[in-house]
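Support request from a user on the community tier.

User writes: "When I paste my structure tokens into the form, the page sometimes reloads and wipes my input. The last time it worked, I copied everything first. Here is what I submitted, just in case something in the input itself triggers the reload:"
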């Protein structure tokens, strides 16, 4: 039986997962999302045309790949439908789990209200309602996609929930719709989504049994994982490999090769610790060279150097077989390139990711820079200093770098 190949983000998201999923989708029959929601923004560039995907798996640009949205995802019907409208050939190749949880407009309003109330302690969420939707799921008051098939019943339950929480909604200044408006809204969703809703657990078991090639597309990154990231400055889901099993209904033995996606430097959007952040000219140069502005919210991304300590943590947590090193070209033209090789915390040198990174200072090692790697497609054609940098990273993190990306384009990819 074939095993499912897995793609996971190893840093704080936006590593370039979309590009590699799209690249690998060319040789896979199914691409599956297992966690997160439309907080994700996966960019794919094919023949110069740019697509931004939030919920639909990045296999959609390959006509032969079918796409599954697993039960671990929180799905905003409104945003999903908007995204679907970019593509006209989705029939029979887009499947949504009936067990995925619904993210409805009030979740986003609650998310935004909570962030406002936190003031300078805000997480810096995408404001899309991810935390409240997962919160309802875990508190067992959420609603699943399968419930869309009976809109009358679903609307009654949602209205009951509004009534029970009226006082909270008032404090948060969250306006809730009437039952009639809600039914109308849900009917609209059902009309478009119903043909795609199915038992995706049965489907994925069947396609694995049939020896089809399955690719699992992670969202966000390891340092944003609810358990293994920089809590509470994280997202509300299991973003690491383990989430692929619970988020799709497969077992650990179904997992095959794990490819971890990492930028050749580091970025983060939103608040929270980021030890190797560069607040000076170098950080700004990375932001400009790398067009580091969020795909989902347009916010400028915080930029800094590759963090080898956090990467070792990510390699172990996810069981990474190979790293795909992205955006090497963004550090073209730097005299020197830095890598964070340890943290200094309360005067002690720490070489793992501890409980709290808030006061961690980076200990850097410096490497010579290079002129140009942009567009290179063969490892041997990289400048010697870039090759040495890649080999040094492999030594520091204890994992092979099997793929190197040198531009946003699908073809500008080195496979070693
Ligand atoms: P994802 O969320 O992990 O899929 O990543 P995003 O799409 O949010 O952000 C990655 C950005 O980098 C996108 O705009 C990609 O088009 C771009 N990108 C991916 N690989 C490369 C690369 O090797 N070089 C450059 N310059 N850009 C890249
Ligand atoms: P992709 O899949 C980068 C960040 C937000 C915020 C924190 C919590 O494109 O890599 P949330 O809205 O999830 O409650 O926000 O997580 N975040 C991301 N950062 N890439 C993402 O997804 C992200 N999804 C969430 O900026 O700091
Ligand atoms: Mg992104």
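"...and here is what came back when it finally went through:"
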């Amino acid at each position: 039986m074939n095993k499912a190949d897995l793609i996971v983000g190893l840093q704080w998201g936006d590593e370039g997962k979309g590009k590699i999923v799209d690249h690998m989708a060319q040789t896979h029959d199914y691409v599956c999302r297992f966690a997160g929601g439309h907080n994700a923004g996966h960019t794919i560039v094919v023949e110069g045309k740019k697509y931004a995907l939030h919920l639909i798996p990045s296999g959609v640009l390959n006509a032969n790949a079918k796409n599954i949205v697993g039960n671990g995802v929180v799905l905003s019907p409104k945003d999903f439908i908007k995204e679907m409208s970019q593509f006209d050939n989705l029939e029979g190749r887009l499947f949504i789990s009936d067990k995925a949880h619904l993210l409805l407009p009030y979740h986003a309003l609650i998310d935004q209200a909570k962030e406002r109330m936190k003031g300078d302690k805000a997480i810096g969420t995408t404001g899309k309602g991810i935390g409240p939707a997962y919160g309802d799921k875990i508190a067992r008051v959420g609603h699943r996609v399968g419930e869309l098939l009976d809109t009358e019943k679903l609307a009654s339950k949602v209205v009951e929930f509004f009534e029970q929480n009226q006082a909270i909604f008032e404090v948060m200044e969250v306006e809730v719709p009437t039952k009639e408006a809600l039914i109308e809204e849900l009917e609209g969703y059902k009309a478009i989504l119903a043909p795609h809703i199915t038992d995706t657990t049965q489907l994925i078991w069947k396609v694995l049994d049939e020896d089809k090639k399955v690719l699992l597309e992670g969202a966000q990154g390891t340092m944003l994982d609810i358990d293994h990231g920089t809590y509470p400055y994280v997202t509300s889901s299991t973003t690491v490999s383990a989430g692929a099993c619970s988020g799709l209904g497969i077992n650990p033995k179904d997992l095959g090769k794990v490819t971890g996606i990492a930028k050749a430097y580091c970025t983060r959007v939103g608040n929270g610790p980021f030890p190797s952040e560069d607040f000076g000219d170098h950080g700004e140069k990375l932001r400009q060279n790398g067009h580091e502005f969020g795909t989902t919210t347009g916010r400028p991304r915080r930029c800094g150097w590759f963090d080898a300590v956090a990467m070792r943590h990510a390699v172990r947590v996810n069981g990474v077989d190979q790293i795909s090193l992205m955006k090497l070209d963004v550090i073209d033209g730097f005299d020197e390139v830095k890598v964070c090789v340890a943290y200094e915390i309360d005067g002690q040198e720490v070489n793992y990711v501890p409980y709290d990174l808030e006061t961690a200072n980076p200990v850097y090692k410096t490497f010579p820079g290079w002129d140009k790697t942009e567009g290179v497609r063969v490892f041997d054609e990289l400048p010697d200093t870039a090759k040495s940098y890649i080999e040094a990273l492999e030594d520091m993190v204890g994992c092979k770098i099997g793929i190197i990306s040198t531009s946003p384009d699908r073809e500008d990819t080195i496979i070693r």
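Agent notes: The reload is a front-end session timeout and is unrelated to the input. The chain has a mean pLDDT of 96. The chain is about 30% helix and 20% strand. Escalated to web team.
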